[in-house]
Amino acid sequence: xxxxAPGVFRCNLHVHTCLSPCGDLDMHPQALxxxxxxxxxxxxxxxxHNSSENVPYVLRAARGAPLCVIPGMExxxxxxxxxxxxxxxxxxxxxxxxxxxxxxxxxxxxxxxxLQPIVNEAGEVEGFNERLLIGATAVSLxxxxxxxxxxxGAAIAAHIDRPxxxxxxxxxxxxxxxxFDALEISSxxxxxxxxxxxxxxxxxxxxxxxxxxxxxxxxxAYTRMALHEPSFAEVVKALxxxxxxxxxxxx
Length: 251
What we know:
- By secondary structure, this protein is an alpha/beta fold.
- It has a single domain (7-248), classed as Metal-dependent hydrolases (TIM Barrel, Alpha-Beta Barrel).
- The protein has 8 helices and 11 strands.
- Strand 2, helix 2 and strand 3 form a beta-alpha-beta unit.
- Helix 1 (29-38) crosses helix 2 (55-61).
- The longest helix is centred in the middle third of the chain and has 12 residues, at 90-101.
- The radius of gyration is 17 Å and the shape is globular.
């Protein structure tokens, strides 16, 4: 689009599938793509807990749809903080997946945590992930963000306003030596509420997302971004406030 002014796109960068142990079984690839489109979203990022095995199927389900799907993962660090890892290509995500699986111990207890199905774009079950996806990895927060960037991804501290499984909830602060690309505020607080609650973090880009585990929650929250097109590269520019791309705050 050259030097033309950017447009505003609706971006929900934190959506789970049925693979996540806390995800509803209705959150299979085709269903969540259809719901995202019906809710008027332009971009979604698939971020299951410590796994990405449903991402290729969501990408296939979105072929031909007016929806950009960003490959991603929600990783639990050694400190039990959640971090969103977003990538432009499945190849970078696959490298992170290999790294995470080598540092994730334990087996899933289906009675306690539920099924972890791998479901294709036709709604067919390809198998079940037997790892303890709800568990913490042996990867430190700093090492994880470094690894995400090494593989070409963007790192977002998830739901920092939550008292558990967040960087602030676990550590009490956002480490200044960890180069996050953005900080996520949960949908119950939103970006404006986040700015009021965390004035000391004014230098960071804030986003808000649905963190959807159920189909009806996919359109519950999203971030408006000024982009030239719906793509991972443009989203990264907005997160990093580059080349006139940015997150739109306020009404």
